[in-house]
Amino acid sequence: MSTMPASHGHSAACCNIPPIVSKGYQPKGSYEEVGGYKTYVTGPADATKAIVVIYDIFGYFDQTVQGADILAYGDDHHKYKVFMPDWFRGKPCPIEYYPPDTPEKQEALGKFFGEFPPPKIAGYVPDYVEGVKAHSPAVSKLALLGYCWGGKVVALTVKAPTNAFAAGASAHPAMVDPADAEGLTIPFALLASGDETPEDVKKFEENLKVPHHVETFADQIHGWMAARSDLENERVKAEYERGYKTLLEFFGKHRFKAEAISLHLLTSHDKPAMAHPNVFLWALDTRSLWPEASNTKDLPKYAQRALALLSPEEQAAVLKYYFVKDAKLSLASALLKRLAISRYTRVPFRSATAVRDARTKPVFLLPSGEEPLLFNVTHQHGVVVLFGAYKPPVGVAIGTDIVCPGERRDRDVKHIQTQGWPSFIGMHSEVLSPLEVSRMRGLPFPLHQPQKLLDYFYANWCLREAYVKMTGEALLAPWLHDLEMRYFAPPGEAPPEGADKSLEVWFKGEKLTDVDVKLDWALGNEYMISTVVRRGEKGERLDVPEPQSLDLEETLASAEALLEELGE
């Protein structure tokens, strides 16, 4: 097909590629009035985060509506409500104008863009945001996404003094202007097609001084994520899906702190995915929380909102701690356990109380005795981690541990410098296997790099502790010498034995094949977090996500929403 010159300030691709009409898609949301505009609204009713979508000039096409549904239900870690307003008030650009290959079509197209220029629509967005807040008071944070013409609206909106969005993104944007990237203060993503001018895209990225993701889907046409997406073409369908996954990963990382995304294309017979995954790994950093509380006795004043969500017994347990840092860890631990129990089992928030089993491990049991939610908690140096699995296969067991190398590195380095590395390892040999002791003593790293040696020790400790916690035992378990972690290394590093070696777990001289172990850096590589999963009786695995950093405000809002929804 011949490509005509761009006209009226929009991209040539936008002008010359006829839209692909998809048939048969059944929307998951509904059309409602929001802020004075007919709006396609989709997503969980209790979502506290929202994405406002600016469609392309063709309005509500099936592919665009389907994209909104994917944004709403495609992230297994977060609940998003999506709002797509009808800026054209029922009069989108007619398909017949494309391609604009006659003077009459060009004149009609020019009139359309003259009626709906991006700066004009961008000026309407702040009032629309107020409409979103009135429609969904629980929504506290917003992101903005635009396609084609809508991408230009996004670029203008997020640079305005009235900007209310914490992240922005544009897919196959029209009128890419590198100057639009200058001065941006929020994370921004740009997904270009092969039809955008590469030099403009490159300069746009170079001008971004904020966290960003810029990527070109080189074999896709302008519009592949919206009206022009031919979902009957397997390659287009795959890139359409990858584009939305990329957006969700970006919003998660830079907007809502998501770490791992599970995405599938919704078909007409699909039900929305669960608002939350079956497996979760949460981390809440308490170090900067409630800074006014210099003593534990100050928490009832400054952490009143969080304490109010706990039972009287849990509140008393928090306030018994002498050091406020320990009290904050106790508060966060109790809050996360109660939140997870209520969220997944749907029991009233006040009834979501963990109890101790025979090994003093926290568990939650229904009146029937069923344990629908497995969870394990760990904490160190101000950070609480909760690892959980809802209705896992029979036989699954889980454990987790967290280590903060920086908390103890200085004193450990001092010990090594004064008494030697073998002495340091020997000091811990009672809870390590003989093979681990021998391997660490023989690590091929010079003693003038004690930090390198210590990272191996911390990694081994974190892995072992998570395994022990998976069993429900304690570090005094009689079989500790029989547990061996072989070829362990700090996260992201290959063991000195070679890149072809990977972590193995051995017990009493036999390699375990029914245990899956992960070790990740978290919170800016300040902590190591390990997870251990014993597979189900039929060998079923769990898909363990990366550690997800939680925001206190969002955590409290989620807990309060559950309290209101499910009652006392």
Structural write-up:
Residues 38-254 form the Dienelactone hydrolase domain. InterPro entries: 4-PPantetheinyl_Trfase_dom_sf, AASDHPPT_N, AB_hydrolase_fold, Dienelactn_hydro. One of its GO terms (molecular function) is magnesium ion binding. With 568 residues, this protein is an alpha/beta fold. The chain folds into three domains: 12-254, Rossmann fold (3-Layer(aba) Sandwich), CATH 3.40.50; 279-392 and 550-566, Ribosomal Protein L22, Chain A; 400-541, Ribosomal Protein L22, Chain A (Alpha-Beta Complex), CATH 3.90.470. The chain is built from 16 helices and 20 strands. The strands form five sheets. An eight-stranded mixed beta sheet has the order 1-2-4-3-5-6-7-8, sandwiched between helices. Strands 12-13-9-20 form a four-stranded mixed beta sheet, with helices on one face. Helix 5 links the parallel strand 5 (141-147) and strand 6. Helix 11 (324-345) crosses helix 16.
- Spatially, the strands of the biggest sheet line up as 1-2-4-3-5-6-7-8
CATH architecture tag of the largest domain: 3-Layer(aba) Sandwich
Radius of gyration: 27 Å
Number of continuous helical runs: 16
Q: What shape does the CA trace take? A: globular
Let me know the largest β-sheet.
Answer: 8 strands, mixed
Indicate the mean pLDDT: 87
CATH superfamily caption of the largest domain = Alpha/Beta hydrolase fold, catalytic domain
Which structural class is indicated by helix and strand composition?
Answer: alpha/beta
Task: Report the end-to-end length measured between terminal Cα atoms.
Answer: 64 Å
How much strand content do the residues show? 15-25%
- CATH fold naming of the largest domain: Rossmann fold
- Share of helical residues: 25-40%
Question: Poorly predicted ranges (pLDDT <50, ≥5 residues)?
Answer: 1-21, 256-277
